[in-house]
Specification:
37% helix; 17% strand; 5-stranded antiparallel beta sheet; alpha+beta; 2 helices; Glycoprotein, Type 4 Pilin
Length: 156
Amino acid sequence: MINNKGFTLTEIMVTVLLVAILASIAIPQYMKVVERQRSVEALGILSAIAKSQERFFSINEKYTLKFSDLDADLVDFVTNLPPTGATFHNRAFEFKISGEADADGRITATRNTGTYCIVRIYETGVVCCSGDEDTCDNINIPQCDDPSINITADCP
């Protein structure tokens, strides 16, 4: 009497196939969740910078183009120092200040992958997304070219 222990090649192949099917469904969903979380982090930083810019504007009657003039507690991811110029980096985004006048003042967060950016206008508080439409829809931020917003974004 032969005692067969172990799995047949067919059983192993079916198991590997099932794991591959589950992974092909789960990984894209996981990546969407990760991207949404990164955008939420960027929105928080955009908000902090915008509030700091409003405080600067109330004293100086113009917005600053240097992060060193702001009272926001930021550390650049690349240099590991407080940012001094018009750009600031975190793990996933590059933030750029532009516009000193009230109507022009904005902060732009461009994704390091270059697929999209998020823009916040200081004066109105409007936040919009420009670039890859699927990503903008996934992170639940309206497109900058939407007729109700109609903002020109200097990004992808």
